[in-house]
Automatic annotation (TrEMBL):
Keywords: GTP-binding, Hydrolase, Nucleotide-binding. One of its GO terms (cellular component) is Golgi apparatus. Pfam families: Arf. InterPro entries: P-loop_NTPase (IPR027417), Small_GTPase_ARF (IPR024156), Small_GTPase_ARF/SAR (IPR006689). The lineage of its organism: Eukaryota, Fungi, Dikarya, Basidiomycota, Agaricomycotina. This is p-loop containing nucleoside triphosphate hydrolase protein.
Length: 156
């Protein structure tokens, strides 16, 4: 767990890890989640599709509906890494392709459950960071702080 103290609040972060076995515990954290920051390796083109599939599982959780979503393109300091724009485009293209495939499987008259995911994707922000150098991290924290403060989600 990480903690950042700001003048008016304390932000707590959990790095849940991305290994397959660890992903099974992620839903346990969703009820207390006020924002999602999902990190992808902008140098690992071969695993982006896997990352999008995992990210889609996160987005499909009803507990996080209405929470701010931040997609972080890490390793922006590495030459040849995908830019923020390339990461955004890659995800949007993957998402649209997935929607078409899903619609084709269901047929033209079947209802689709994509609206909540589409709404979440529309509110998604993508930012570049370098965890090693620390660049972009402060901007990401500030973005999360402002969005959490203004979030429509209300705890019961």
């Amino acid at each position: 767990m990480g903690k950042i103290t700001l003048p008016s609040t304390i932000l707590q972060f959990w790095d849940l890890g991305g290994q397959r076995d660890i992903r099974l515990i992620w839903p346990r954290y969703y009820d207390d989640c006020h924002a999602v920051a999902y990190v992808v390796d902008a140098t690992d083109r071969d695993r982006l599709v896997e990352g999008w599939e995992v990210f889609e599982n996160v987005l499909s959780a009803p507990q996080i509906l209405g929470v701010p979503l931040l997609l972080l393109a890490n390793k922006q300091d590495v030459p040849g890494s995908l830019s923020v724009e390339e990461i955004r485009n890659h995800y949007e293209e993957w998402f649209q392709r997935r929607q078409r495939e899903h619609a084709a499987e269901l047929g033209p008259m079947s209802p689709t459950s994509e609206v909540p995911t589409a709404e979440r994707m529309a509110s998604l922000n993508v930012q570049g960071i370098s965890a090693i150098e620390g660049t972009g991290v402060r901007d990401a924290v500030n973005w999360l702080f402002i969005r959490v403060q203004n979030s429509r989600r209300r705890d019961s």
